[in-house]
Amino acid sequence: MGNSILYNTAGSIALAVNYEIQGPYNDKFLTKEADTTVRINADFYVRVGDTVFCIEDDTDLTESDLDVGSSFDASSTYYVYACQPLDGSDTPVFKISKNSTYPSGWNANNSRKIGGFDTDASGNVDDTTLWDLRTVDVTCTGVEDSQIPANEISLSKLKYQDLGKVLVGQGDSDAIAAEHLPRVNLLTNTGFQVWSNSGLDQGSGVGRQTDYEVGSAIADDDCADDDTTDWTTGSNTSLAFDTDHYEMTNDAANEGAYIPNRSLTKGHLYKVSIDIKDGTASGATVKLFIQDGSYAAASFTTTATWQTISSIIEAPLTSANGNVGIKVPASLGGNNIEFRNFHVHEVTPGCVESNYFGPDGWKKDLSINLLRESSQTKEGEYYSLKMVNRTGAAGALYYPFGNLRNEVTFVEKWKGRTITVGAWLYTTDANTFKLGVQDDVNGFQLSDYISTGSWTWVEHTINISSSISWIHPFVVYCEASSGAIIYISQPILVFGSSIGEGNYVPPQDKVINLESQISLQDYNNSTVSSDTAINMESQSSGKLGKGIKAYWINVAAKCSSAGYEFHLRAGSGGPYGLSLRPQVANVFFEGVGRVGADSDSDIYLQRNNTYTNVYIQVLAAEVR
After folding, report:
1. Over the Cα atoms of the chain, what is R_g?
2. Max CA distance (Å), the chain
3. Global pTM?
4. Residue 624 pLDDT greater than 80, yes or no
5. Which of 200, 218, 391, 624 has the most CB atoms at less than 10 Å from its CB?
6. Angle at CA 600, nearest 5°, toward 552 and 377?
7. Selected residue with higher pLDDT from 571 and 141
8. What are phi and psi of 459, to 5 degrees?
9. Span 189-212, pLDDT tens digits
């Protein structure tokens, strides 16, 4: 029928091809026919906006098809465009232009770049530079990828079978050029929100854990000498030094002592730790707190002997005038409690011991420390991963954790494939870090050393052997260099030979099954008698961070009466998640369910009776 155009006038076109659908291919559809003539070879189909061009006759383009001018300039770059006719006819129009976006008289909606070439010093077509949409998908065209402008490679070596897509009535959105194809990130926990293996902990018997300290102490008083003047007390509270500890006397509710003017950052975590015991008062409830306008605290009960307790608290506001201290909710009636070793540090979850644990889904070598970072981050994610060479021995960060690397179904999907790994990386340690892959056939296959001094996008393409029996398809490798540090943000792993800066895709709605279940601090054999918001980051010792959409939670509890309600939901007005009703009084009831989180990744507990022996444990987290 000759060359023609099919218009998508009523959503009736079932063709959404990017070029010729016959194949496989072994040549270009653009060829040089004379010094200044380029031929579009027949049996070529191409999508242009909401139309499909059907080219059944060879079509020659010459200098007369220039959009501007009458002859080719010497040593210049030209592009070939398929253009919808401006008069609405059904005869395809082709133009040659020096414009790299669209030819003069047309726009991006009614034209499409299908190839290009350079001219030589005489103004003739240089056959060695001639490329088209098919060039990147075959290997015998005589044109290397490196000769094609990077932003013109529209199909990134897609297999020809993928091009005959049948998509009806979707207009421009159904083009399948690679720049519009969704990338699937094959990694998990790439925002580093979930750290069930972190050793950071709180509660009775837990102190400062200096391995997790960040920067200088916010407050530091061992109470071994009299520094009570550093403290501010309530009008009905007094603080006195006694040999090696302080004694706090209280004669009113909700009073205590605090160290003022501490610098706090909203959303950051602070660990408040103390040694405390009964004085002349016994069994007193105390709260460790940080405060500036808003108030955050955790409760403990004193005993007759010294006990070390600590609480991890999220700062509600950013301020240079915050208060950190201890408060007694009920009056001690003039009696006192005793304390010493009061310390407050900003803390971050991490895996810093001589083991293989990392954030969930990841592992590390024994020589490596991993910390969740919220201060040195790249735009696009709230957290980055801080990787530190702890011992000076060479080591690496790996995906995945555990035996998954040699599980047969996991290994099979990588065999014989081309994959690309990428990430934003920041380090000031030159000649130390590389990005890549590790398997049992080729060992490490790594990029060049990461450049230093600023966030840098790095990607590395690897051809995986068909003979592998285990694989870590994402690795950040560190040479032997004690104290070397790199920050890792937005890691991505894809099938194919490229990713491209700015094309990071977080794994959407990914459910991360925790490698260790997390017991919430205040809900571990506890009594609940009021509705309350649950700060999941504080309650989980920082193991559950920002950017979590929902949790899979196990609840166990008792109630003195049957039939009352116990709910976990996304905020006080949010949708219900896990709802339970005890059927028998004073007998454990239990349930597991999905609980949505609010915008701060927190949940809300609502009940209409008092519940005892309450346990709340997190089993999985769904990230946004």
Report:
1. 33
2. 105
3. 0.70
4. yes
5. 200
6. 105
7. 571
8. -135, 155
9. 999 999 999 988 888 888 888 777
Identify the CA nearest to 460 among candidates 472, 482, 475.
Answer: 475
d(CA 459, CA 435): 8
User: What pairing do the DSSP bridges indicate for beta strands 395-399 and 384-389?
Assistant: unpaired
Cis peptide before 316 (omega within 30 of 0): no
Distances (CA, A) of 387 to 478, 504, 547: 9, 20, 21
- Rounded to an integer, the average pLDDT of 98-108 is 90
Q: Are residues 424 and 417 in contact, defined by beta-carbon separation less than 8 angstroms?
A: no
Per residue in 545-569, pLDDT tens? 999 999 999 999 999 999 999 999 9
Residue 11 clears pLDDT 70, i.e. is over it: no
Residue 142 has, within 13 A of its CA and on its CB side, a CA count of 12
Q: What's residue 203's pLDDT?
A: 85
What is the Cα 226 distance to its own chain's centre?
48
8 Å CB contact between 477 and 444: yes
What are the backbone dihedrals phi and psi of residue 151, each rounded to the nearest 5 degrees, phi first? -80, 0
Greater model confidence, 55 or 249: 249
What pLDDT is recorded for position 574? 86
The C-alpha atoms of residue 406 and residue 439 are separated, in whole angstroms, by 10
Q: Taking CA 202 as the corner, what is the angle to CA 536 and CA 388, rounded to the nearest 5 degrees?
A: 85
How many angstroms separate the Cα of 320 from the Cα of each of 218, 231, 263, 264, 296?
11, 16, 4, 6, 16
Q: Cα separations (Å) of 155 from 4, 69, 140, 179, 585?
A: 24, 31, 17, 8, 66
